[in-house]
Specification:
Alpha-Beta Plaits, Ribosomal Protein S5, domain 2, globular, 9 helices
């Protein structure tokens, strides 16, 4: 049996440049994987089966099953596997949980089935499954361009702690509806993302005030729960607050672990929002941030 941690991701920046002819949006984003992770276990089996701690995500409806089936077909083999997923990443929150599980399935089954594919091969397959999957094959921190599937790795950077809180989504097809809500006034040229990319490449830190998400105002306007959660997080003392991916989850970047824990407890115990504290993975050994 192989056991893989499928890491959640956070968009430190996310800028939309415009709508493409294929219907997707051209984006630039700096993405970072987190300690928060699902556990994916893979073992040999006669058929391809997927079990999940969230029953609604079992079987062929799961993106990890799609990834496994795509890999099997591409390799031209008839192997099976049992995929078991213990969910910790909240579902449809904007943290890439489904894509992380799919990436883990590709990496793990390549090993289990002894296919010997390169990382480029796996990323190419991942791009057919979901825009975030190529990045999550290796994780870390990277620049994402195109519709998010083209990845340029970045050196590790010291990052703050993150408090995540989870409003409910009120959209049937959340990601598509959020992108549809953007208009030309929301589009940028990606200058902020490129500025942060240059800072990281030159060995700089990532100040919370340089974080950005094009969906920050959009999510608050279309989802009253997001707006209420945002206001509660600000009342709890957080200042740099952003949407996770296309939402509805939000996060606050906080430099001190103690402050992050305090905001988390206020959100969870007093305000009534499901909340957690996490940090970047992998995290550099730096004295700049409280551990």
């Amino acid at each position: 049996m192989l056991t893989i941690q499928a890491r959640a991701k956070l968009n430190l920046t996310l800028e939309a440049l415009g709508r493409r002819e294929d219907g997707f949006h051209e984006i630039v984003s700096i993405m970072q994987t987190l300690e928060l992770a699902d556990t994916v276990k893979l073992s040999p089996a006669e058929s391809l089966d997927l079990r999940c701690s969230v029953p609604a995500l079992e079987g062929t409806r799961n993106l990890a099953w799609t990834a496994a089936d795509t890999l099997r077909r591409e390799a031209g083999i008839g192997e099976g596997a049992l995929i078991e997923i213990e969910k910790r990443i909240p579902v449809s929150a904007g943290l890439g949980g489904g894509s992380a599980d799919a990436a883990a399935a590709l990496v793990g089954l390549d090993r289990l089935w002894k296919l010997g594919l390169s990382r480029d091969d796996l990323r190419s397959l991942g791009a057919r499954i979901g825009s975030d999957v190529p990045f999550l094959i290796d994780g870390g921190i990277a620049m994402a361009i195109g519709r998010g599937e083209k990845i340029r790795p970045l050196p590790s950077a010291p990052l703050p702690w993150f408090v995540l809180s989870f409003p409910k989504s009120n959209a049937a097809d959340k990601t598509a509806s959020m992108y549809a809500a953007l208009d030309h006034m929301d589009f940028t040229r990606g200058a902020l993302t490129h500025k942060l990319e240059a800072r990281i490449r030159n060995g700089g830190d990532v100040p919370p005030q340089l974080l950005f998400n094009v969906f920050d105002s959009v999510a608050r306007s279309v989802n009253a729960d997001v707006d209420a959660c945002w206001n509660d997080m600000r009342a709890a003392g957080a200042r740099e607050i952003h949407v996770c991916g296309s939402g509805p989850a939000i996060y606050a970047a906080l430099e001190r672990r103690e402050f992050a824990t305090t905001v988390h407890l206020v959100m969870e115990k007093i305000k009534g929002w499901h909340s957690l504290v996490t940090r970047a993975w992998p995290h550099p050994d730096s004295a700049r941030w409280t551990r």
